[in-house]
Automatic annotation (TrEMBL):
The protein, known as: Integrase catalytic domain-containing protein
Any GO MF annotation of the entry: nucleic acid binding
Span of domain Integrase catalytic: 156-244
Highest classification ranks of the organism: Eukaryota, Metazoa, Cnidaria, Anthozoa, Hexacorallia
Top-level taxon of origin: Eukaryota
InterPro entries: Integrase_cat-core (IPR001584), Integrase_dom_put (IPR058913), RNaseH-like_sf (IPR012337), RNaseH_sf (IPR036397)
Organism: Acropora cervicornis (Staghorn coral)
Gene3D superfamilies documented for this protein: Ribonuclease H-like superfamily/Ribonuclease H
GO biological process: DNA integration
Length: 423
């Protein structure tokens, strides 16, 4: 049985299919349609780290719930939701920080670490305490981190969904992972961030984003990469009856990747926010002789073991970015506040939502016409069957972190080598 499976894998022409997950998980109550009660909404927004006035703004503008600040404070107090006098246990804080430092959190600063503690671990703590703890538990990391700044021209976008920027991130491509992302130009909110750039699948991400948003942006900008060909056609189709200056063909703009300012700048944030750790991690695998991109089993195994973990890392990175507070800058066209606030509540910044509403019929027509694929793992069916047999026979589980994924990766390769040696 084993030899037949191995032969099928060796002789097959591998066409790496994409990961099926589309847009970001809907962590924000404003995106969900679960009819939560008022107090439950308040609790969810509180745990996302929003300030009192931000919670009130979301309740009013997204849920039609009008509350005063005193009433909000009473509800929070009744539920025991406080930050100033309710700091988490020291052991819980240290454990969470140590957990983050073992992974991609080892290369981020104290502000980003504070965000991870609040949003990923439900830790109640202030930034200054995080900074102090990091100096104690990770002095070398604090010393090694440095700031890199790049001056750019001033960027202008009128409001949310006026222009989206798409691009691919190739730093993990040598190891089999092609990342594709999209950012709203005005709010700087990440629309999607996924571990594949196949044209059919990126088109699926776009359609899922349309469903989530309820429309398309006035303008969509991307480079000339083949992963964008379907999206360009879809965008122009959905904007075919618009009457503004960017209707139809003009609604999709091709340009050089390095000139796609918003998304190019954000790739630097992604790398500093944890992706650099993964680049080093995979380079170490390669340098230690554990990965070779010419070996079909290595390529299939690394995708099988790490794809979902990296996607989860991207989901967390996008969520943290969308919820972080952008500091004021000298560019009046780049307003401060959280990207989620700027995107969902344009009224607070005296602007408007520029999306073009798309009907469900049009979305379904595009889907039926194109037949977009939706595969859960970018591996051949033969390899997935082989990996599942090995895992079942040896009592192995799918990994939940980088070290577990590495252990599974090595175990799969060892078992496959045993089968090859017995052929």
């Amino acid at each position: 049985m084993w030899s037949k499976v191995i032969r099928r894998i060796v002789v097959i022409v591998i066409v790496f299919s994409p990961l099926g997950a589309a847009v970001l998980p809907r962590y924000l109550p404003a995106e969900q349609q679960n009819n939560l009660q008022r107090d439950n909404l308040i609790e969810q927004y509180f745990h996302l780290g929003l300030q009192h006035w931000e919670i009130l703004a979301f309740l009013l503008l997204q849920h039609g719930i009008r509350l005063g600040i005193r009433q909000l404070k009473r509800i929070l107090s009744r539920r025991g939701l406080t930050r100033r006098n309710n700091t988490s246990d020291v052991q819980d804080i240290l454990h969470a920080i140590e957990t983050e430092l073992k992974g991609s959190g080892g290369i981020i600063g104290y502000r980003a670490m504070h965000q991870r503690l609040v949003n990923h671990h439900n830790i109640v703590i202030d930034k200054e305490t995080v900074r102090t703890i990091l100096r104690i538990v990770d002095p070398v990391g604090v010393e090694n981190r440095s700031k890199h700044r790049l001056k750019r021209r001033q960027y202008r976008s009128k409001g949310p969904n006026y222009i989206w920027h798409m691009d691919g991130y190739d730093k993990l491509k040598p190891f089999g992972f092609c990342i594709h992302g999209c950012i709203d130009g005005y709010s700087r909110r990440i629309v999607w961030l996924v571990t594949n750039n196949d044209p059919d699948v990126t088109a699926g991400y776009f359609l899922d984003a349309i469903r989530s948003v309820g429309g398309v942006p006035r303008i969509l900008r991307a480079d000339n990469g083949t992963e964008n060909v379907h999206i360009a056609a879809f965008q122009r189709f959905f904007r075919r009856e618009a009457v503004d200056a960017f209707a139809g063909e003009k609604s999709f703009i091709y340009g050089r990747s390095v000139s796609n300012q918003r998304i190019e700048a954000w790739w630097g944030q992604l790398r500093r926010g944890g992706m650099d750790w993964w680049i080093t991690f995979f380079k170490d695998l390669r340098d230690n002789g554990l990965f070779c991109d010419d070996n079909i089993f290595h390529v299939e195994s690394i995708r099988f073991c790490f794809m979902f973990i990296i996607q989860e890392e991207l989901n967390k990175a996008a969520k943290l970015w969308n919820l972080h507070r952008i500091r004021p800058s000298t560019n009046p066209e780049s307003p401060p506040r959280r990207p989620d606030m700027l995107y969902f509540l344009p009224e607070i910044s005296n602007t408007q939502n520029y999306k073009t509403v798309v009907t469900v019929d049009d979305v379904e027509l595009v889907e039926e016409t194109c037949g977009l694929q939706n595969v859960q793992l970018p591996c051949s069916p033969e390899f997935i069957s082989l990996a599942e047999i090995i895992m079942r026979e040896n009592g192995l589980m799918m990994p939940s972190n980088a070290n577990d994924a590495k252990a599974l990766y090595i175990e799969l390769l060892d078992k496959i080598k045993e089968v090859e040696d017995n052929l």
